[in-house]
Amino acid sequence: MIEARYDIVRRMNLRGMVAGSLIRDYYKVADRVPVETYVQDVIDGVRFDSNLSKQIKKGFKVYGLIPDYSEAEESLGWGVVIVWQNPDYRPGAPQRRVVTPSRYRVQLNSRVSRRVQRPQPGL
């Protein structure tokens, strides 16, 4: 499925894609390691996370933390914003427009912790 997403991004000449990733194995060390340290350790290859490490290996980069991302107990609710940049992107080349649902809005800013707004009822 991820390969299909890469294909679409390349075919549409998009700069990349933004996604969220669960940090599935955080619960194993949460009592002694802050989430920021855990994620940095995964990025640096010091720790292996059964979900995030695979995303990083596929070329995604971590751009921030998402508190309350999931109800999954193993992540203690944490997730991360991940971004994959299309290496085949051609600036100035024709680009197909993509309409994304406005239910989810990601606020990316300079803060360490980036929050994802929950959808409003009825959207």
Structure, explained:
- The chain has 123 residues and is of the alpha+beta class.
- The chain has one domain (2-117).
- The chain is 21% helix and 20% strand.
- It has three helices and five strands, in the order αβααββββ.
- The chain has helices spanning 2-11, 35-44, 52-57; strands spanning 16-22, 61-66, 79-85, 105-106, 116-117.
- It has a three-stranded antiparallel sheet. It has a two-stranded antiparallel ribbon with strand order 4-5.
- The protein is elongated.
- The two termini are 26 Å apart.
- Residues 104-123 have low confidence and may be disordered.
Number of helices: 3
Helical amount:
10-25%
Give the beta-strand count.
5
Largest sheet: 3 strands, antiparallel
How do the strands of the widest beta sheet line up side by side?
1-3-2
- Our estimate of the beta-strand percent is 15-25%
Instruction: Report the uncertain regions.
Output: 104-123
* Sheet/helix structural class: alpha+beta
Radius of gyration: 16 Å
List strands and helices in order, with pairings:
Layout: H1 2-11, E1 16-22, H2 35-44, H3 52-57, E2 61-66, E3 79-85, E4 105-106, E5 116-117
Antiparallel strand pairs: 1-3, 2-3, 4-5
